[in-house]
Amino acid sequence: MLLYNNSWSANCYKVRLLLTQLGIAFETRDLDVVDRSNRPEVLGGLNPALRVPTLVFDDGRSLGESGAILWYFASTVGTRYLPEDPFERAQVLQWMFFEQYDIEPNIAVARFWKLAGLEKPASEVEAKLAGGQRALAAIEAWLSGGRQFLVADHYTIADIAVYGYTHVAEQGGFSLDAYPLLQAWHARVAAQPGYIPIT
Amino acid sequence: MLLYNNSWSANCYKVRLLLTQLGIAFETRDLDVVDRSNRPEVLGGLNPALRVPTLVFDDGRSLGESGAILWYFASTVGTRYLPEDPFERAQVLQWMFFEQYDIEPNIAVARFWKLAGLEKPASEVEAKLAGGQRALAAIEAWLSGGRQFLVADHYTIADIAVYGYTHVAEQGGFSLDAYPLLQAWHARVAAQPGYIPIT
Over the stretch B70-122, which tens digit does the pLDDT of each residue have? Predict the structure, then answer.
């Protein structure tokens, strides 16, 4: 299996983390996330979004979107990372969609601007910080119900998906000081068997 | 069942469409999408994102994110709207994540600005139009492979999810003239049994 990858991208990290925890071997090929001019040539025909992660199976089939890749492996090989109950499975997806809509576009983008050294207007940076803080506060409120993990009281791909960018939010200029339950949950994720860090 | 709803939102429409096609009865309660000041009071405790659609079941459980709601009903009641094959199921999710990341933030937001009469800087409007056109072109390219539907050669919740905002893209200032396959696919979706229009 070949994973089109980038070391900055926590979307790619989510896939590397699950595949490693499942003991599934894969190769990586890193793509540039600043200069994307070769994307149509490399990913055209593999992923309509021309983004990483894109996974290519040995039989030539390909799959894009970190959430879809996580779901595929958790629903086939790593079923311990998905609840069995259909409602809890839908809750897993609720958090995964929330992550791609509310967390990623704010925290990942603010972090990318910093990592890439891009100067952006203060109003744009402020908007990303405000949106990201709202998302972090929503997770903190959810965890305040005594939950150890996001869904079903055990580690699932919802945790992997939301952990991805929130655990490196400080690299985007976010403070996690106001979110002690989030920090404790980060520590629980990092204590899972087979855990690997993002770098 | 109670659906917190808004008549402009195609995310809500997706849920209304599937529930109607499945013959599942539901009530709606419309929330304002311009003045959101009552959201914490109404949706707090029901949906961490404080967004519509939010579905409340008769037993009090609640679910947010249109994609999660579609998945729940298609995986339990309306299994004809999901492929059985795990890889094709992952492809359904790939399109649903693509929709929430690449289509919704561009086409839905540009359309909302027009419907609500909000004046935005030309550069912001241009960015939304460019991002939306890239997404529409990606769908057109996918359909050029001879596909009648997005996944598995039959109508699935991937079609519902992607149809939602793309079929009203012109209300956001997008032209669909360059996408004949997209328009033909729109017509196939609208010809499905039990179809209802957005308004």
Answer: 999 999 998 999 999 999 999 999 999 999 999 999 999 999 999 999 999 99
Residue of A nearest to B150 (CA): A48
Q: Which residue, among B54, B97, B140, would best test binding to A if mutated, counting the most A CBs under 10 Å from its CB? A: B97
Contact check, Cβ <8 Å, A76/B86? yes
Residues B176, B30 contacting (CB under 8 angstroms): no
Instruction: Tell me how far apart the alpha carbons of residues A185 and A145 are, in angstroms, rounded to a whole number.
Output: 13
Nearest CA in chain A to B51: A98
Radius of gyration of chain B (CA): 17
Q: How many CA atoms lie within 13 A of B126 on its CB side?
A: 3
Q: Answer yes or no: do B90 and A139 touch at CB < 8 A.
A: no
Distance (Å, rounded) from C-alpha A31 to C-alpha A15?
15
- C-alpha closest to that of B48 among B66, B33, B63, B61: B63
pTM of structure: 0.97
